[in-house]
Design goal:
By secondary structure, this protein is of the alpha+beta class. The chain folds into two domains: about 250 residues, Bira Bifunctional Protein, Domain 2 (BirA Bifunctional Protein, domain 2, 2-Layer Sandwich); about 90 residues, Anticodon-binding domain (Rossmann fold, 3-Layer(aba) Sandwich), CATH 3.40.50. A hairpin with a 5-residue loop joins strand 15 and strand 16. Helix 1 packs antiparallel against helix 5 and helix 5 packs parallel to helix 9. Bound molecules: adenosine-5'-triphosphate and magnesium ion. Magnesium ion binds next to loops.
């Protein structure tokens, strides 16, 4: 019997995980500058946390949920996205209280689960890095969140990007627009895909997000939500645009963009890439927006919110096509070569002492001949080799070689064990 990983999952092996760490470290550095702190919520939540928030007609709820009943018959879901769990935690821990600074800013990174048809850039277990900021309705924060997402992609040197924005307005906006959209779609009802037929009356905005090509043609000429904005919504969107202009951030407006989740309002955005990794086809790497009703929906007091989620696998697909750029830190400072069986304990003492002093160190464990050990040292590109034999141990000495210059010296073993920094000076 052969064991294989489940469909749509991936093993991230050593070479690849170095890149993941690089991205994660860059993200943490950036979030520190913007003063976002990490929040770690459970990988699974009660089913309702997602079913109540993502929208009953969304793909996530209708098709993609990894849900099951546990041994206590609780309905559980592996999280398909990060925001709902963070909001659940925000409410449960009363992070809206007066003792907390507004906006309350958090980030997360970790696995998400969606039952999708696996393909390049689409997995069943994938990873997101995301942020949420609560308690401020000011459009300046929308712009800062967008700027931060762009900053994040730039910090890992991804450039083939475009920013697409839209607004979904407030509730009144969407009520007015909803009817206009139904009126427009009704004559096409027979031609729409099954999904869209179903969604047309329940949630017509969802039809705009259809992946069906024929649906997409039909909605091309649909009325624009931008013509239905209330004064307030219009003002919010105008401010977002003018602040983006002020920061010199370029954007396109796509009035048909709605996002896959139901909880958004006002500003929504996607950052897309036409990298070779996607065959030059514009693909969304990062997406987000404002979700002012969500905290209330999960039982908290009315609290505005805004955030984004970035797909790590998609980001790495782009990075991998520009691989030579990645500054991967896998240096070996010292390789210890032991000659003869009697050197085993001392070799161990040396590598341990070096590691304690902050150096990376490696050695042989297979009693190989010196020649084989030296070969390994150069294959690992060790900066130094330290060689000991029985005689060296008896004299409390070791031979040290600087691999770059080829220079060799005999040094006191105690100096290596206590102050290697000084030895290599
Ligand atoms: P799509 O339209 O591609 O299905 P979505 O609207 O479902 O995207 P979001 O829920 O906004 O996507 O997720 C944000 C980001 O997370 C996406 O832009 C993408 O980078 C990533 N993502 C979403 N689903 C997957 C998946 N199944 N596999 C890998 N990455 C994903
Ligand atoms: Mg999706």
């Amino acid at each position: 019997m052969k064991y294989q990983k489940p469909k749509g999952t991936a093993d991230i092996l050593a070479d690849e995980s170095t890149k993941w760490q690089y991205v994660e470290e860059k993200a943490r550095e950036l979030f520190k500058k913007y003063r976002y702190h990490e929040m770690r919520t459970p990988i699974f939540e009660n089913f309702e946390v997602f079913s109540r928030t993502s929208g009953e007609t969304s793909d996530i709820v209708t098709k993609e949920m990894y849900d099951f009943h546990d041994k206590g018959d609780r309905h559980i879901t592996l999280r398909p996205e990060g925001t709902a769990g963070v909001v659940r935690s925000f409410v449960e821990n009363k992070l809206y209280g007066p003792e907390y600074q507004k906006p309350y800013k958090v980030y997360y990174m970790g696995p998400m689960f969606r039952y999708e048809r696996p393909q390049s850039g689409r997995l069943r277990e994938f990873h997101q890095i995301g942020v949420e900021a609560f308690g401020v309705d000011n459009p300046t924060l929308d712009v800062e969140v967008i700027a931060m997402a762009i900053d994040l992609l730039k910090s890992v040197e991804i450039n083939s990007l475009k920013l697409v924005i839209n607004t979904l307005g407030d509730i009144e906006t969407r009520q007015n627009y909803r009817q206009a959209l139904i009126d427009y779609l009704e004559p096409f009802e027979d031609q729409l895909s099954e999904d869209s037929k179903e969604r047309m009356h329940k949630n017509p905005l969802r039809v705009l997000d259809s992946k069906d090509e024929n649906d997409q043609k039909i909605v091309e000429n649909a009325p624009s939500i931008l013509d239905f904005l209330t004064d307030n919504s219009k003002k919010h969107f105008e401010t977002v645009k003018s602040l983006l202009d002020d920061l010199g951030i370029k954007y396109e407006i796509d009035a048909n963009m709605v996002r896959g989740l139901d909880y958004y309002n006002h500003t929504i955005f996607e950052i897309m890439s036409d990298s070779k990794a996607f065959g030059g086809k514009w693909t969304t790497v990062c997406a987000g927006g404002r979700y002012n009703g969500l905290v209330e929906q999960l039982g908290g007091p009315a609290t505005p919110g805004v955030g984004f989620g970035l797909g790590v696998e998609r980001l790495l697909l782009i990075l991998n096509t520009e691989k030579d750029k990645l500054p991967l830190d896998d240096d070996l400072d010292v390789y210890v070569v032991g000659i003869g069986n009697e050197t085993n304990a001392k070799s161990l003492e040396i590598v341990q002492a070096l590691r304690q002093q902050g150096f990376s160190a490696d050695r042989d464990y297979l009693n190989r001949k010196p020649k084989g050990q030296f070969k390994t040292a150069s294959r690992l590109a060790a900066k130094y080799t330290i060689t000991i034999g029985e005689r060296e141990i008896a004299e409390n000495k070791a031979n040290i070689k600087d691999m770059a210059s080829g220079q060799e010296n005999s040094v006191n073993l105690d100096d290596i064990l206590n102050n290697f920094e000084n030895v290599i000076k």
